[in-house]
Amino acid sequence: MDLKAKINLDKLPSHVAVIMDGNGRWAKNHGKPRVFGHRNGVTSVREVTEAAAEIGIEYLTLYAFSTENWNRPKLEVNALMRLLVETIHKEIHTLNKNNIRLNAIGDISKLPEKTRKALVDGIHNTRHNDRMTLVLALNYSAKWEIIKAVKDIATRVGNGDLDPEAIDEDLFSDALSTKGIPNPELLIRTSGESRLSNFLLWQAAYTELYFTPVFWPDFRKGHFYQALIDFQERERRFGKISEQLIKS
Ligand code: FPP
């Protein structure tokens, strides 16, 4: 039976997050430089974006560059930044045609000017689209955004604008860069690594984690469907016991 037909469209996660990993190892296996892996990773970005929008996912977040990634060789960082500009320019038309909105989380003020501009323009040019939001995590790390949120909240308390007693989960969530975006229900990581690597630590408190050995450049629609099927086969209890859950 075809994988897509096995997916229950009434039980889709509204937000899927992906740690796209394994580009470097994929390239090495092909006897090519790491950047070749990133370039081929763009095909997977396209496939997964298309698959997610087609099936009815509302938010797709892709971890494209972490704050730790600046420690990579300069040549690789520069190539990744150029690839982002090139990809955004190339894909903006398709995003609009498919009614997909682009958004970003992370400290984008620290990106090279050309990358920042491509991103800001892309976000602006797709702002009216409402079928799916594609969120790129760029120069993002969960600890960075948590510290930033704490500083913002502390400043408001210090100014007398906020009563510390009013600080609750909702207020804290609204201080994060994902404000307005529901928590991911499913997080996929490719390449056989089983870690969160500083990605959406607050938001992933109850997220179902799906790890696959497939390297990101090999990840295709079928792999995405498989992750959704796996998600739908799990029971999400949020701390309750099975009998307390309303069965649908
Ligand atoms: C991880 O593989 C991948 C990245 C750090 C970059 C991901 C970027 C892309 C797929 C290209 C552009 C993306 C968009 C959204 C336009 P790795 O290099 O850590 O692989 P390794 O673990 O095998 O070394």
Stretches where pLDDT is under 50 for at least 5 consecutive residues are none
Number of domains: 1
Q: How would a crystallographer describe the biggest sheet?
A: 6 strands, parallel
The largest beta-sheet arranges its strands as: 3-4-2-1-5-6
Question: How would you describe the overall organization of this protein?
Answer:
The protein is α/β, with parallel strands linked by helices. It has a single domain (4-232), classed as Decaprenyl diphosphate synthase-like (Undecaprenyl pyrophosphate synthetase), CATH 3.40.1180.10. It has 7 helices and 6 strands; from the N terminus they run E-H-H-E-H-E-H-E-H-H-E-E-H. The protein has a 6-stranded parallel sheet with strand order 3-4-2-1-5-6, sandwiched between helices. Strand 3 (100-105), helix 4 (113-125) and strand 4 form a beta-alpha-beta unit. Helix 3 runs parallel beside helix 4. The protein is globular. The two termini are 24 Å apart. The site of farnesyl diphosphate has 19 residues, from helix 1, helix 2, strand 2 and helix 3.
Summarize this entry quickly.
Helices cover 41% and strands 15% of the residues.
Helix and strand topology:
Blueprint: E1 15-19, H1 23-29, H2 34-55, E2 59-66, H3 74-97, E3 100-105, H4 113-125, E4 132-140, H5 142-158, H6 169-174, E5 186-189, E6 208-211, H7 221-233
Parallel strand pairs: 1-2, 1-5, 2-4, 3-4, 5-6
Helix pairs in contact: 1-2, 2-3, 3-4
The chain binds farnesyl diphosphate (FPP).
Defining key terms:
single chain, 248 residues, alpha/beta, Undecaprenyl pyrophosphate synthetase, six-stranded parallel sheet, 7 helices, 6 strands, 41% helix, binds farnesyl diphosphate
